[in-house]
Amino acid sequence: MLAQISLTPTEGKKIIGIATARLPEVQNAWQNGTITIHPSSSTWFLFEELTGFPPSKERVWVCGVITSNGACVENNITFHSEKKEDSEIKQHPSPTGFRHSWVLKKGEVIYDYPLGDIISEMGQGDLYIKGVNAVDHEKNVGVLAGHPVEGGTFGFVLEKAKENNFSMVYPAGLEKLVPQPVHQVSKFAKRNEYSYSMGISCCLVATDQGKTITELEAFKIISGVNAYCISSGGFEEARGAVTLVLEGTEEQVKTAVETAEKVKGAQLPGITTPGCVNCMAKENKLCFHPVKGKPWYREIKNK
Length: 303
Description:
Elements: E1 2-7, H1 9-22, H2 24-32, E2 34-37, H3 44-51, E3 65-67, E4 70-72, E5 78-79, E6 102-105, E7 108-110, H4 115-121, E8 127-129, E9 134-135, E10 141-145, H5 152-164, E11 167-171, H6 182-185, E12 196-197, E13 203-207, E14 211-213, H7 215-223, E15 226-232, E16 242-247, H8 250-263, E17 271-272, H9 280-283, E18 298-299
Helix pairs in contact: 1-3, 1-7
């Protein structure tokens, strides 16, 4: 049996969140160990699926975005309804001091936990779950890093995952699909060698270490169907959408379609990007505040 569906990027993220929460290793870590989730639009619905409630609106929920002006890698991006003064922004010079992770420890939610302390306590059976910026056809992933420390929090966690033997999981919507191998293109993402950068300059940390869950894997987990992406893109609210064909038994396809119908209209919170008074990126001269009527880039190196 075949069925055709279309999902916006946000609806795809919700499908992926539902499926990721059902993974045996995720359920085991949720009940018996530690799951550390990097806050992002790709992990929002996973947190909600596991806990039964959304992440706290008193906390940062996304720590790096691509805006129409370029890359913004800041720890002060907030919900639309919130306003924070620049003087309240606290930055951490080292990835170990990152305090915005959502930590789920044996079913208990913990906030404001320094990343270095979390990771030092994690081991076999525990999970680190991170949204990504790029996924290639081999399911290898890449993460943009704008932190002054090369590799940022993701580079730090990758290194510690090998040492401490905990696992990595990457919810990655097909909107993040890139046409070239991430390991190949990452060689050109030399942030300190760019002549110009729209927004903050970023390197790309590429890895094949961990499990990647796109909409294709998600539908397999949820219902057992095989999913095939036959189209990408859309109009208005469907910009970035994917159109999929689902193939399986009548029961499998029915389950997949019912799940797809349930996520239709899914929404994420809006964001307000920070000002630049105490911005770490501005202080390190890697970014600047856009000036009306002028291009949103800064010169990184004179050539």
